[in-house]
Amino acid sequence: MEKVVIIGTGCAGLTAALYIARANLNPLVLTGLMPGGLLTTTSIVENFPGFPEGIDGYELMTRMQKQAERFGARVQFATVESVDLSKKPYSLIVDGEKVEAETIIIASGAGHRHLGLESEDLLEKKGVTYCATCDGALPMFRNQPLVVVGGGDSACEEATYLTRFGSVVYLIHRRDSLRASRIMAERTLANPKIKPIWDSVVTEVLDVKQDKVTGVRVKHLKTNAESTLDCAGVFVAIGHVPNTQIFKGVVDMDENGYISRKEGSQTNVPGVFVAGDCSDHVYRQAITAAGMGCAAAIDAERYLAALSQ
Ligand code: NAP
What we know:
The chain is an alpha/beta fold. 24% of the residues lie in helices and 27% in strands.
């Protein structure tokens, strides 16, 4: 039986792994489908303390994993399919195999929110994408007009990154000002290749019949006027949804699926702790997720120590 199973290898999961490993508890750390989490899809991370020149997101997560492994964390590329928290030891089905655990730290992160359009789904990977760093350099986007949807830091980051490849980048946002941090917003709006389109939403991605992105239909929310914009790619950057579906009905969560914390990182299930974006819709930073991972590890360690007394 495992003493601690950590679900997720983003900043929260790997920081928890580091602390649990250094407490000699030899954690099993399960990556899910995206080892390293969402930060691996970011280009440069400029706000993680300790890296004055910034650090590539993938590089940061690789280093975190190495650091945790150095102290004995066992990182396994595997996905948790279901959990049974009704009795101890807790059990998890991991890629078809049963794993038993005394404590669990949920650090399953969050995934990209979709616009919710049928055409968006049908054209995913055919010009619709959720990650500029992953897909921006593809030949289909080179020297073509591109669209980014959203008004937060992610949208600004994606739009700025895409100016390397696209002929012009339209930033379509449903309000008339950006939600992004001031430095990101100013940098974005000062970029001559980025053209903001305010107060507007994408109502359809074109063209499903041609089986590739050729443009978007855009609605202006103040005038209701509809127009069409030619583009070769649509990069959706409108926030995230927590990866907590397998805990539904078992672990308490809010109406949006973010796992609720009681004291510190404790969930409603004794011995099950939570950290990072799957529980935080307020701060959602690499450094806050790492801090929550540290707290969850300390809570789990104290819980195990109390059990053995
Ligand atoms: P976010 O801050 O939640 O912004 C989401 C944006 O998408 C908002 O502008 C929102 O509009 C818009 N939106 C949401 N649902 C929409 C819909 N259905 N249709 C159209 N637009 C929609 O998300 P984020 O930009 O992914 O950032 C998440 C967190 O990560 C933030 O805390 C951010 O600071 C952080 N982050 C930091 C960095 C960095 O510092 N390098 C980079 C990326 C992300 P409204 O404005 O109208 O709500």
